[in-house]
Model the fold of this input.
Amino acid sequence: MKRLSDISTIREIMEKNGFSFSKALGQNFLINPSVCPRMAQMSGAADAAGAIEVGPGIGVLTYELSQVAKKVVSIELDKRLLPVLDETLSGCDNVKIINDDVMKIDLHRVIEEEFGGEEVAVCANLPYYITSPVIMRLLEERLPITSVTVMVQKEAADRLCAKPGTRACGAVSAAVQYYAEPEILFDVSRGSFMPAPNVDSAVIRLKIRKTPAVEVTDEKLFFRLVKAAFAQRRKTAVNSVSNTMGLKKQSVTDAFIASGIEPNARAEALTLEQFAALANCLASAN
Ligand code: SAM
Done:
């Protein structure tokens, strides 16, 4: 079998199929041969019922996943890639390609139908224009998944894996920590892709928690509060929350004091436990 990370193989496949890269679909294909085997190994797909991949491209990671997982289901939006994948993965009987949009497809149904509802691992080199929405969808929908191992832009990796209470933390980092234990696995240079993007990347792994990191009485309110606290980062969290949520400054200040939080604190200084205490305090005040 030809190596799918070889530039000459990719060029040959593209020419044969009259394929050209779509920037809008975030099509940067991996040409560094060491990346996909590592991702597949570290994804935990071997120990789960199988793997779900987003955006197989020409199948370079799909192939490696098929070598370690019992079954791989890969969701690709660009139908021009279907005949290509038919050819490149022709020897892989445990792979199923679904032509759909990962933001629209019913993932609960896919896991039910393809894996009998058993826990799967997600592994992907994500299209960068929808990195956070895809990750948040995977986390918020409470899917039966063990972990999410994905390649994202380096800056996004740092943000997604930042711990609450540190400068790099934002609303998305707090949300990730709520559902999962994130870690950066390894960096990948921009030269590892064709065409090369303008930034470097990193592979991160989010191990899904069995129960959320903190207990909250009203999850929706908790996430609204976290978003509101980070909405005006230069202001104190009290001001940002009261401005964004339309609450009286005094009642927000009271909730901070009742939760044992310094009212002059900025959102980036708050831990997940403090956000939870605040949300629970605001919920009981209503
Ligand atoms: N896995 C391949 C690799 O590593 O070389 C390709 C990765 S490329 C960064 C992203 C892939 O996601 C492309 O194949 C692109 O067509 C696909 N894609 C883009 N938007 C998508 C969507 N909304 N749903 C599913 N696939 C999508």
Notes: The chain has two domains: 7-208, 219-285.
